[in-house]
Design goal:
NADH Oxidase; 14% strand; globular; oxidoreductase activity; Nitroreductase_HadB/RutE; Nitroreductase-like
Length: 203
């Protein structure tokens, strides 16, 4: 059972996707080693890629680590507290391509904005990071829709990870997401969130 009240439309009908996406979903503290099939991971990205990014720029690049050998390559870059999460069925490295704009003539055929970024690396980097971060969030929601648990991680050494997985420098890591299945029920109640009146201003 969710531990918060169901959000409602103005007409009082419960939001149909609120359960698996928000109300019932929890970030596991311990993970089962149950594998995540490659086809599920492909489907996960196929869903996440449909959500919006600026100019449809789609800068996220995802590496799914599923084998023990692949996960061991990540171990030296992880903080101590995140090491147990290597047990999860898959670990997604969500990175962003700093030269995403090279794909814009195809991804944004109605208007090609690539000239905005070609000689402006600062704008390109900001755009890649912001929209790549959005895509990491979409990936988490897509995972939940597919029946997977998802746990984002920021406790890692980006430089060490990039040296191992993205040595060319064009792609940079942003966030890690453990994917798979929790090992048992949540160990503790859901932590509090800020109330609407604390976090929202409506003008």
């Amino acid at each position: 059972m969710p531990d918060t009240a169901s959000p409602l439309h103005d007409d009082g009908a419960a939001l149909p996707a609120a359960g698996p996406l928000f109300l019932d979903a929890r970030t596991p503290q311990s993970w089962s080693d149950r594998p995540v099939p490659a086809e599920t991971l492909r489907r996960l990205y196929e869903l996440a890629r449909l959500a919006p990014t600026a100019f449809n720029s789609s800068p996220a690049r995802v590496v799914f680590l599923t084998t023990p050998e692949a996960k061991e390559r990540l171990r030296p870059a992880l903080s101590k507290g995140n090491l147990p999460k290597l047990k999860a069925g898959a670990i997604a490295i969500v990175a962003h391509d700093l030269r995403f704009f090279e794909h814009l003539p195809r991804l944004s055929p109605h208007y090609d904005p690539s000239a905005l970024f070609t000689d402006n690396p600062s704008l390109a980097e900001t755009t890649a990071f912001r929209n790549g971060t959005l895509q990491a969030g979409y990936l988490i929601l897509a995972a939940r829709l597919l029946g997977l648990d998802a746990g984002p991680m920021s406790g890692f050494d980006n430089a060490a990870l990039d040296a191992e997985f993205f040595p060319g420098g064009r792609v940079r890591s942003n966030i890690l997401v453990a994917l798979g299945h929790a090992d048992g029920p949540p160990a503790r109640p859901r932590a509090p969130r800020l109330d609407v009146d604390e976090a929202v201003t409506i003008l």
